[in-house]
UniProtKB/TrEMBL annotation:
Species per Swiss-Prot/TrEMBL record: Meganyctiphanes norvegica
Protein's name according to its UniProt entry: Purine nucleoside phosphorylase
Function per UniProt: The purine nucleoside phosphorylases catalyze the phosphorolytic breakdown of the N-glycosidic bond in the beta-(deoxy)ribonucleoside molecules, with the formation of the corresponding free purine bases and pentose-1-phosphate.
Record keywords: Glycosyltransferase, Transferase
Binding site residues for a purine D-ribonucleoside: E214, N256
GO terms, biological process: nucleoside metabolic process
SUPFAM superfamilies cross-referenced by the UniProt entry: Purine and uridine phosphorylases (SSF53167)
Record's catalysed reaction(s): guanosine + phosphate = alpha-D-ribose 1-phosphate + guanine; inosine + phosphate = alpha-D-ribose 1-phosphate + hypoxanthine; 2'-deoxyinosine + phosphate = 2-deoxy-alpha-D-ribose 1-phosphate + hypoxanthine; 2'-deoxyguanosine + phosphate = 2-deoxy-alpha-D-ribose 1-phosphate + guanine
Classification via Pfam families: PNP_UDP_1 (PF01048)
Gene3D superfamilies: Nucleoside phosphorylase domain (3.40.50.1580)
Domain Nucleoside phosphorylase residues, every copy: 23-291
EC number: 2.4.2.1
Length: 298
């Protein structure tokens, strides 16, 4: 486990080298790191330069940099959302995350969330690529997570394993409303304003260890569990964020339909995942940008 002091060292390293004091953190999923490139007045920290920080090994999809800067957009200055002004808010973006299949324990995958917390971040926006198991979902759709299934926790491998440090949060944190109700509502409103209603869903996410994609039998089982989207990340970040009382909003980009029939030659492959991420990244980035600005108001 990383001690409080080690996490604080990382946070202090970043705070000493940036003038920004972000209250919003963003974790960019596979192929979705472009949002960080839209920030201005950036301070950029390759993960390998941050003391005790993990490093990205899937660098083709995850640049492996912490980008701290200003995000600009229209801010609604009245409660009826009629009057707007241009605003700039400080955010910190992880341009790339860590996965269990890279060999990292779950607490280490989620350790950057605690670094964000000690830097003053209060709200976390998460994006990631996932397979659509719900038969109504198509490649290119977006799912707001309503709830997750912590399968690793079922198996005795939770991200909060080990001695609890109360300075982060309680030994037994609740996971009700893990995906903040108000933020979900706001996300749906913003998606409607962007005329994305036909591709937006709300559903249940499950994280599997990967890196192999699922078998048909596994997907049939997950369908019975009520899972709508399947991925290889996010759940540990959310649990660690909720443990330290951050508010969370998370979006899947559905990069492929999960294959639940044997009689087909279709196969999931990572090139399709990245291809769809590239096709949809402009919408996804705009959605996250607008939600971050709206989150700053609320
Ligand atoms: O969850 P993110 O980081 O977006 O990555 C997703 O994309 C990769 C390939 O499918 C897997 O790592 C999967 O979890
Ligand atoms: N586990 C898993 N992760 C994904 N990431 C993108 N697509 C998928 C998928 O079908 N399964």
């Amino acid at each position: 486990m990383c001690t409080y002091d080690v996490i604080k060292q990382c946070a202090d390293y970043l705070l000493d080298r940036t003038k920004h004091r972000p209250k919003i953190g963003i974790i960019c999923g596979s192929g979705l790191g472009g949002l960080a490139d839209q920030l201005t007045e950036t301070d950029i920290f390759p993960y390998q330069d941050i003391p005790n920080f993990p490093v990205s090994t899937v660098t083709k999809f995850h640049a492996g940099r912490m980008v701290i800067g200003k995000l600009s957009g229209l801010e609604h200055t009245s409660t009826n959302r009629m009057s707007t002004s241009v605003s700039e808010i400080p955010v910190m973006c992880m341009q790339g995350r860590f996965h269990a299949y890279e060999g990292y324990p779950l607490w280490k995958c989620a350790m950057p969330v605690r670094v964000m917390k000690l830097m003053g971040v209060e709200k976390l926006l998460i994006t990631y690529a996932a397979g659509g198991l719900n038969s109504k979902y198509n490649a290119g759709d977006i799912m707001i997570i309503k709830d997750h299934i912590n399968l690793q926790g079922f198996a005795g491998n939770p991200p909060l394993q080990g001695i609890n440090d109360e300075r982060f949060g309680p030994r037994f944190p609740a996971m009700d409303n893990a995906y903040d109700r108000n933020l979900r509502l706001m996300a749906k409103t913003v998606a409607s304003e962007m005329k994305l209603d036909n591709i937006i869903h709300e559903g249940t996410y499950i994280m599997l260890g990967g890196p192999s994609f699922e078998t048909v039998a596994e997907l049939k089982m997950l369908h019975i569990f009520g899972v709508d989207a399947v991925g290889m990340s996010t759940v540990q970040e959310v649990i660690v964020a909720r443990h330290c009382n951050m508010k969370v909003c998370a979006f899947s980009l559905i990069t492929n339909k999960c294959i639940t029939e044997y009689e087909t030659d279709d196969m999931v492959n990572v090139a399709d995942v990245i291809g769809i991420a590239n096709n949809r990244k402009a919408d996804m980035q705009e959605l996250v940008r607008r939600i971050a600005i709206a989150m700053n108001e609320n």
